[in-house]
Amino acid sequence: MTMVKLTPPLGWNSWNTFGANISEELIKQTADCMVESGLRDAGYEYLVIDDCWSLRERDANDRLVADPAKFPNGMKAVADYVHSKGLKFGMYSCAGNLTCAGYPGSFEHEFIDAATFAEWEVDFLKYDYCYHSPIIPGEILYRRMGLALENCGRDILFSACSWGADETHKWIKTTAASMWRSTGDIFDKWDSVKDLTKQQANLLPYNGVGCFNDMDMLIVGMHGKGNVGLSGCSDIQYRTHFSIWAFMGSPLMVGCDIREMSEQTKAVLTNRELLAINQDTACRQPYPIKGIWQDSVTAYAKNLAGGDIAIGLFNLGSEKAVSRFNLDELGLPHSTGKTLKLADIWTGKEANTANASISWELEPFDCAVFRAKVVDRK
Ligand code: GLA
Prior knowledge:
- The chain is 26% helix and 21% strand.
- With 378 residues, the protein is an alpha/beta fold.
- The protein has an eight-stranded parallel β-sheet.
């Protein structure tokens, strides 16, 4: 079985920081930390081991084998520990012969691998797209594993990772995927955040309940350390990155070493109001707002369940920017007698809507996110 997810999945994934340096010890410490830091209680539920967990060869029965040097007690023991902390356990495989890092993939082993994951009590499978057949279309490969998971006797969330290749958006909802990587890999530098944000714009109509656009794991708090760590970002840039991912309804998979995260990183990752926008039950598509601003600014609104409107103003550039738009853009022309009451989630600063428009100054790389209430104009 695979479950139907009603809001974007949240969790942690080993790849961004640890790459191949994964172990039972690391996963246990991370599980402990997800609880102690409050990440679990904020909603981060899945603890996912990415690539490089297995031996290079299958066993005599054609089964995948956990590398005993990294996981001396096997994967079921890891799953048990993760479950004992009230978390769910995720693993990784690939639609090709090999995973991206060259370990055995699940091609032509879909059902036996799904059975193995079910036996280990895995709850989530990230499924990559390296070394796949040049002849068999991706949609068939993903439907295969989707079917294998749906028939494995356990609820396993299917997380597709074909990076948007081969027009994934056109067929992904024919598979059992609950989330799908809509863009290429993230790296821990600002340009990467900018690129993924721009690439996402045209794909927003494909996001929604049951199958969420995955903009890739978060780099918040990496500060250049780890597997995809490059120049790193400033805390302001990480906050804007998190705000965009949350706003656009992406699954949020933490990618930093949470055992060493700063208070600042924790505050960003656990911001209740941003998480509430991300987890809004209506899962409506954010729409671009038209207004007056520098090219570096991108602005979206999202109509939330119950009538509030989330508004996000994101300055992707290195210069200070001023943005202004009319409430008309949000469906509130003067004739309605209504206006908005709104304060920036990050700073608490209130916006002035007296002249039926909103003007806001954005520092370099900064953002403002509002949860606006529709109120009578006085
Ligand atoms: C691909 C994926 C990444 C990660 C690596 C592992 O690049 O897109 O998210 O899983 O493979 O090798």
